[in-house]
Amino acid sequence: MKALKLTFGLAALALGIANAASSYKVKVFEPLWVGSTELKAGEYKVEMMGDKAVFKMGKSTVEISATFAANDKKFPSNALVTEGKKLVEIDLGGTADKIVFASEVTAAP
Asked: Which pairing describes strands 52-57 and 86-91: parallel, antiparallel, or unpaired?
């Protein structure tokens, strides 16, 4: 019975660590576009859930298609990479990981 409790406790701890490790805080200083979605200025909690980045600010939640990618070296701090008013990627400080947002491709007529 003690072994079962220990196993359950370790599993809960591992799940908590994994969940905490996949959540990042980023600050958007001015409105930015990600695909067809506009992110308003403010501090967001960002989590990767499969092939989507989930932005949470208060009760507001926005899901955007994204992928994880690796960099050659660690980023010193969280950073938003933009092209004009368009968010392209988020560099995750203290890691060599980044969240990359797919650029929308329009079909030619």
From this structure: unpaired
